[in-house]
Write a structure and sequence with these properties.
The chain is α+β, with helices and mostly antiparallel strands. It is 23% helix and 38% strand. The strands form five sheets. Strands 14, 15, 16, 17, 18, 19, 20 and 21 form an eight-stranded antiparallel beta sheet that branches. The protein has a six-stranded mixed beta sheet with strand order 1-6-2-3-10-11, covered by helices on one side.
């Protein structure tokens, strides 16, 4: 039976950061754990953090990812030196990993992850997936995993990020650093069930742009013109603008079916642009067929908070008599209340953590501000952007009831 403990803290020195986080989670700096997951803002070197963690917890698998901030039991942390970790004790998990993950290889790499998770003593029922945040067709990764493990396995997690600049994101696997890798933790503990949901709170505006030429996850043309310059022009940005200029304001919206819109609480699902080519192509987060309509969006603060409360109520109603033993959160920096010329996260985090607390004690909580989020929609594994996506793990008993 798997057990979880987590923490988050802020420290410039990598050794101090890991030791403090382990002390907060376990009360000692060298706990016996079988798996450590670490999220770290880009002021930290993942290899250094990983090697300290491997020294303190010999024998544990150590998996780490870069991000723009973390969320844990101590709340949100957005400095360059925040880290969060979650430790797992128990045998009922398996780790899979791949390198060379790009848009064109996404299906192949997803299937490779699935094959590595297929040989467990019991079938894997849920997967924590952390993938590179740049140049990846996330829908194809999901398709690849499902081609091996089937559509009933629940995929949750995030894609790594930098400080929302779209330059480079990092993943570390047992002390080795990568830029285009993914790791997946397959859980096969029969005493656990997982519930996932995502919400954003942005509104599509104006007339849509239409994808008129595309190749996989590369949008070549919008409205018959080079995609990147057209995208910048629609936002009123000059030709020298970068991803760092567009990511906070440039969420693109794809229309959902009425059935999915009702469940989602929004008529559109969002996509982020994390990269473009010198030829003016947009590197999209999923594969995109010609003819797709893409709307620009505006952030609706009132809607963000109302939809968050709606999501939390829905999740409580599905498990009315239980509190989660662990929560995995993937989130976007653009969410929260805008104050003092920045977006404040504390209130939003409080409104999601308190309903899942037991007598005021927050469960093991592992969150990051990344480039994208995995959570189910319409009963299917899906990829999201600009959302809060939660995966709550509940103890349900050995019979799965």
């Amino acid at each position: 039976m798997l057990e979880f403990a987590s923490s988050n803290c802020r420290a410039v020195n990598a050794e101090r950061a890991v030791l403090e986080a382990l002390e907060l989670a376990y009360g000692v700096p060298d706990p016996e754990v079988d798996l450590l997951l670490i999220n770290a803002a880009v002021g930290h070197d993942l290899q250094t953090l990983s090697h300290v963690a491997m020294r303190q917890c010999p024998g544990a698998r150590v998996l780490a990812a870069s991000c723009a901030g973390v969320v844990g039991p101590q709340g949100p942390g957005e400095s360059l030196h925040d880290i969060g970790l979650i430790g797992v004790r128990g045998a009922e998990f398996t780790v899979a990993q791949v390198d060379g993950l790009y848009g064109a290889t996404s299906l192949e790499m997803g299937a490779a992850l699935g094959r590595q998770l297929a040989g467990t003593p019991e079938p894997v029922t849920m997967i924590y997936l952390l993938a590179s945040g740049i140049d990846i067709a996330n829908d194809r990764v999901i398709e690849g995993i499902e081609s091996v493990l089937g559509p009933d396995v629940v995929i949750f997690g995030a894609t790594s990020s930098d400080q929302m600049q779209g330059v480079a994101t990092y993943q570390a696997i047992d002390g080795e650093s990568f830029q285009h890798a993914a790791f997946a933790v397959g859980f096969w503990d029969p005493t656990l069930a997982v519930d996932t949901q995502a919400t954003h709170g942005f509104i599509a505006v104006g007339e849509p742009m239409v994808v008129t030429a595309a190749d996989g996850n590369r949008i070549i043309e919008l409205d018959g013109k080079p995609a990147w310059p057209t995208y910048l022009e629609r936002m009123g940005l000059g030709p020298d603008a970068t991803e760092g200029d567009t990511i906070p304001i440039g969420a693109l919206a794809e229309e959902l079916s009425p059935e999915l819109a009702q469940e989602y609480g929004n008529s559109h699902i969002l996509r982020v642009v994390t990269h473009h080519t010198d030829e003016g192509e947009i590197i999209y987060a999923t594969e995109v067929p010609v003819g797709t309509k893409l709307w620009l969006t505006v952030r609706d603060e009132e809607r963000i908070f109302a939809d968050m409360d709606r999501m939390m109520l829905s999740m409580e109603q599905r498990y009315p008599d239980s509190k989660p033993v662990a929560v995995f959160q993937a989130d976007c920096l653009a969410r929260g209340r805008r104050l003092f010329d920045r977006v404040m996260k504390e209130e939003l985090v409080h409104r999601m953590q308190q309903p899942m607390a037991t007598d005021g004690e927050i469960p093991a909580w592992f969150g990051m501000y990344g480039f994208g989020e995995y959570a189910r929609l319409g009963g299917c594994n899906s990829y999201h952007n600009y959302t809060t996506a939660l995966a709550a793990l509940y103890r349900v008993g050995a019979d799965g009831a």
